[in-house]
Design goal:
With 439 residues, the protein is of the alpha/beta class. It is built from 14 helices and 13 strands.
Length: 439
């Protein structure tokens, strides 16, 4: 039976490699559609948690996992040998940057090498990890064909970029249109059959390279526009103009303007990283992506700008940054989620600590700092308890992430120096003059 026939008969087995913010919800969608689904991850603690029916991601409730485990529709494993049972393999592993800002495909390549002994005729591999154009046919296809398969004939290969947005109250991965490009028409047909099971709209494109480029364009668009508004914020601050009021006014124009908002830097796995994948690949064609790189430089400079504003504000209190107690509000990279990957809060903490400040953080969604590649020194540090006494003990509070859980009236009542990078206190009339500094 072909993959399409197995999918129609509910007999296909799907494996999703990488049980993180992208892979886990996708695997659960496949399982909920009636397909036996295997979640594969090298982190044994995640696998054990999933097989108990327990979630480790805040916005994915255990109640969504447990019934699927009980019905034997979903199971997790650390063993790549389980891939020999599957008809489709979806790769959702990280694609970070090296210390030199070059693409790091080690997770993708390692996954492919571990999977290679368990590939079989008629299988489909879909790569979802964000990467530069050419990765699918330059890195995955040769490794598959080295195992004796002919992609497009007895093996299928596609690229379908993830569009996961953790905590989005409007869109879920099942309702966000999904772009997909196949190495051949037969590959695309197999990929469409797979994703039509779990996505309301699938958008086919002519090749994996188009799909790979599409993902980069989406995130570079955001990076460039955020870089623009971050630069505008710095200019507006010098002119004593409220950039947030400016943006709200400009957004009343019904055409030709899309509002983007400034912040302390970029966070999340995609926007701080993806532009550099394209700039790296462009150099192969002797192209210098100046516009993209300039936006990246501006966004990367924002944590230093915030620290300068903190220093200036403490100076007005006749306090040096060295020795001051600073509380960072929000470790997650965006509001009301527990995802702190690439969060600018880490950069703020690093910079403030390097200048002698005593640093704590509060985040109800991230009670303890998880392992990170670039900020290992903070691992294990715990969020403080939110109490009036604790709040009052800090010389300065920096709002880095705007969570709904903050009790803003208590914040204003107990913190005389607040640096607000997210316009979180725009509607608070109880502030004392000079208490809030926007940055």
């Amino acid at each position: 039976m072909s993959l399409q026939e197995k999918l129609q008969a509910n007999e296909a087995v799907v494996a999703v490699i990488g049980m993180g913010y992208v892979g886990l919800p996708l695997a659960l969608n496949f399982a909920a559609s009636g397909l036996r689904t295997i979640g594969l991850d090298v982190d044994r603690s995640k696998v054990e948690s999933l097989n108990r029916g327990e979630s480790y991601i805040e916005h994915i409730p255990s109640e969504r996992i447990a019934p699927l485990v009980e019905e034997n529709t979903f199971e997790a494993t650390t063993e790549f040998s389980a891939l020999s049972e599957t008809d489709a393999i979806v790769i959702c592993v990280p694609t970070p940057l090296t210390s030199h800002r070059d693409p790091d495909l080690s997770y993708v390549i390692s996954t492919m090498e571990k999977a290679a002994p368990f590939l079989k005729d008629g299988q489909l591999i879909s790569l979802e990890s964000t990467t530069y154009p050419g990765t699918t046919d330059e890195e995955l296809q040769p490794r598959i064909e080295a195992c004796g398969f002919q992609v497009g004939e007895n093996y299928h290969l596609v690229f379908s970029p993830e569009r996961e947005d953790p905590g989005n109250p409007v869109y879920k991965n099942s309702t966000i249109p999904k772009v997909i490009g196949g190495v051949s028409p037969a590959c695309l047909e197999a990929g469409l059959a797979l994703y039509n099971r779990v996505v309301s709209k699938v958008v086919p494109v002519s090749s994996p390279r188009v799909a790979e480029f599409t993902k980069l364009l989406e995130n570079i668009y955001r990076s460039v526009n955020i870089g623009l508004v971050n630069e505008m914020k710095v200019v507006a601050d010098e002119m004593n103009v409220d950039i947030w009021e400016v943006i709200d006014a400009a957004a009343t124009k019904p055409f030709g303007f899309t509002p983007f908002y400034p912040g302390p830097g970029l966070g999340g796995h995609c926007i701080p990283i993806d532009p550099f994948y394209l700039t790296w690949k462009a150099k192969e064609f002797s192209l210098h992506t100046r516009f993209i790189e300039l936006a990246g430089e501006i966004n990367e400079s924002m944590p230093k700008y915030v620290v300068r504003r903190v220093t200036e504000r403490l100076n007005r209190e006749k306090k040096p940054l060295n020795g001051s107690r600073v509380l960072i509000l929000g470790l997650a990279y965006k509001s009301d989620v527990d995802d702190c990957r690439e969060s600018p809060s880490f950069d703020l903490m690093d910079l403030l600590f390097e200048q002698g400040a005593e640093i704590d953080y509060y985040d109800p969604h991230v009670p303890e700092v998880p392992p990170t590649r670039e900020h290992a020194a903070w691992q294990g540090k715990k969020s403080i308890a939110w109490t009036p006494e604790n709040l009052a003990s800090y010389d300065c509070v920096v709002i880095s992430t705007k969570h709904k859980a903050y009790q803003l009236d208590e914040l204003l009542a107990n913190c005389p120096v607040i640096v607000d990078t997210r316009n979180a206190l725009v509607d608070q009339s109880g502030a004392v003059e000079g208490q809030i500094t926007k940055a």
